[in-house]
Design a protein that fits this description.
With 268 residues, the chain is of the alpha/beta class. It is built from twelve helices and eight strands.
Length: 268
């Protein structure tokens, strides 16, 4: 198991993974660094770990999370490259930057360091996230330890790197799509007279319950839909309107658009 874990960047995603890591670290040392030191300190105080700076994380941690946006990655790695180059012990870099391959992270870091590439989503903050990951020059035991470390965040699944961008377009971008749908459903209920607070609660619970039903029963989404659509009933009329307005086509196109943008980020 990793004995020291560091986070370079404690924004929404970095902070969410830090929360999970503290739970899964089995007593390992966790260090937090952020461009705004006060932000790292505030999170460290909440989690009972240590706030520090980028150079200390780069010098001391066996697993180093690179929690910055793709366009900031080159600058971050350039700033810590001399520290990494001076290390004699083994360490692993973990990048969550959309579009940047593990090999690209190695290029930016200046050497063929072991790299784990991961794609988390925002529900990881409440232990209900999805995290896909893959490794380059990483030992099988390290990948297993990584999966155990982040298990408190939700579903942690190893995939081939060629699938990472597609996975990001689905589960990484998906919370925004789901939230948009929940908001629209709630708006519809408000239009029918339901109070706003109840409409939002009912929409969120309905989405959560439907997802749980599919996970636990293994039912195909179409079967779940069919089970609600009684002949001549209300639900099938709502489904008819959704189909007439291109609901499924729009959802498919949204994922494809997110996928294409993710790939463009890597090329940029």
């Amino acid at each position: 198991m990793f004995q020291s874990i560091g986070f370079l960047g404690t924004g929404q995603m970095g902070g969410a993974l830090a929360r999970a890591a503290v739970k899964g670290a089995q007593g390992a040392r966790v260090l937090l660094a952020n461009r705004t030191p006060a932000k790292a300190q505030a999170l460290a105080d909440q989690l009972g770990c240590q706030a520090t700076d980028n150079q200390t994380v780069a010098a001391q941690c066996q697993l180093i999370f690179l929690g910055v946006k793709p366009q900031m990655m080159e600058g971050l790695l350039k700033s810590i490259a001399p520290v990494l180059a001076g290390r004699k012990d083994r360490f692993v870099l973990a990048s969550m930057a959309a579009g940047l391959t593990a090999r690209r992270i190695q290029e930016l870091a200046g050497a063929d360091y072991p790299v784990i590439r991961l794609m988390p989503n925002t529900p990881a903050e409440v232990g209900a996230g999805v995290i896909q990951f893959c490794g380059v020059d990483v030992e099988p035991g390290e990948l297993k330890d990584f999966q155990t470390l982040l298990a408190p965040a939700g579903l942690v699944d190893q995939v081939d790197e060629g699938l990472i961008d597609a996975a990001c377009a689905l589960s990484g971008c998906g919370p925004a799509f789901c939230a948009l749908l929940a908001e629209a459903l709630a708006d519809g209920a408000v239009a029918c007279g339901l109070p706003r607070d109840k409409a939002r609660r009912y929409a969120a619970q309905t989405m959560e319950g439907t997802a749980k039903l599919m996970r636990q029963t293994g039912a195909h989404p179409g079967a779940v839909k069919d089970a609600v659509c009684s002949p001549g009933g209300s639900t099938i009329q709502g489904v008819r309107v959704l189909e007439a307005n291109g609901f499924r086509a729009a959802a498919i196109d949204a994922v494809i658009a997110a996928f294409e943008k993710t790939q463009a980020l890597g090329k940029g």
